Amino acid sequence: MKIGFFYISPPPDSTLYTGMNQGVAILVSIIKKMGFSPDFRIIYGDAEIDSIGKDYDLAFISTFSGMADVAEKLSSDLKKRSPKTYIVMGGVHATVAPFDAIKTEGIDAIVVGEGEFAIQEILKKFKNRDFSHIPGIFLKDRNYFNPPAFINLNDIPFPDREIFNQKSILHKYGSIVGAEFMAGRGCPYSCTYCINATLNDLYKRKHIRLKSPDYLISEIRDFISRYGKPQLLGFHDDIFPFDTDWLDEFLTLYKKHINIPFWANTRVGIINKKLLKRYKETGCIRLHLGVETANEKLRKEILKRDMTNEQIIDTFRMIKDHGIKTLAFNMFGIPYETEETILETISLLKIIKPFRTIISLFTPFPGTELYNICKREGWEFDYHIRNFYSGIAPLTQPSISNERLLYYFKNAIGMIYG
Ligand code: SF4
Asked: Which of 26, 101, 294, 408 could form a disulfide with 94 if both were Cys (CB 3.0 to 4.6 A apart)?
C-alpha cells in the first residue's frame, strides 16, 4: 500500500520559526512502527504540490487553519490526479473547525482531535474501509463526528525527528531554540484567541495530561544518543507543567541525568520565587510569557486573561532577579484595539524590557471565541498565513486603521528598545 503523509507548513522565513511539528513526527513514527514506509513531504505551496506523485492509495494531510487553503489545493489536486486515493485530513484545523474542514475539496474524511489512535485504526481497517467506529473520525458522507480518542502519552512512540531533518534544525537554531520536547499536552486556561478553550470543551478538560518524568527523561536520552548533547533544550508545552509533585520529580531527574540549559513557556500568575529558584538551579536560562496587551479592560474582557499590569511587572522583575532571561509575546490589532491601547502596550514593554519581545498581528482563527466576535461584528478578516508574508493586516476593524496598525507593528520594537 502506498501511503503519502503531507504536512502543510508555512514557508521558511527568517522571522518565523517553523521547526518541527512534534504531533506529525509522532504519527509518522506510528505508521513506520506498523511496518509501512510513508512518503513524507513538507508542503509549503504550489511548487511542492506539483512535484508529488499521483499513485497513493492513502494520503494523510495535516494542516492548521492558517494553511488550510494550501491543504485544499493539495487535496483537490491529489483527487483529480488519482480519484482512487483515499484522503484523510487531520491536525489543528480539522480539530477546531471540523464542519469547515469536512467541506475541503477532495478529502474523504477528517480526524478530529489527537490522531495517534485513529491513524492506527485507519491503517488496520483500510482494506474494508470500515472506519465508522474510529474515535474522532468524521466521514464526508455524514453530518457528525465520533468523540475523539483520549490517549495515554506514555504509550506513544518518540517522534520521528528525521523527517524534519533534526540535524539541520539544530545547526540553524541550536543556540536559540535547541532540541525541542513536550512534557505534556493542553492548558487549563481558556484565553479567547487560543485553541485551548475549544480543546477544553471538546475533551471536557481531560486533554490536559503529562508524560511521566521517567518517560520524558528517556525521550531526552534517546535524542542525545542519536544527535549528541545539544547546547540548549526547550519545552514547547503551552505552559510548562506547574504540577508541583511532577515538577519536583522531573527537575531532580533532569539535573541528575541531563543537566543541559533549557527554556520553557510559562504564565504570569503561576511563577513564584520558590519555583524560580528551582528553575535556576536546574539550568533554566529563559522563560517565555504572554503579555499580549497592557490595556486591562481588553485583557480581561476580550482576551479573558485574568492578570494585572502590576502582576506582569512584578513577574518579569522577579524572573530577571533570578538571573533568567524573559521573552514576551504580544498581539497588536485585537478586537476593539485603538492607537491608545497599542501605545499602552508599548509603554508597559518599555518598563518590563524583556530580553526579547515578539509582536504578532492578531488573527481570528476558526474555533476561537474572538473569531465569533469578529464574525458577529461583520468585520473583514482573513486568517490565512499568506497575509503574514505580504504585510497585510489580517483583520480590519473601525477602532484603528490598518495603516496605523501596520505602522506600530513595524516600529514598536524600535520604540521599546531604541
Ligand atoms: S495561557 Fe496560553 S496556551 Fe493557555 S489558553 Fe491562554 S494563550 Fe492558550
From this structure: 101
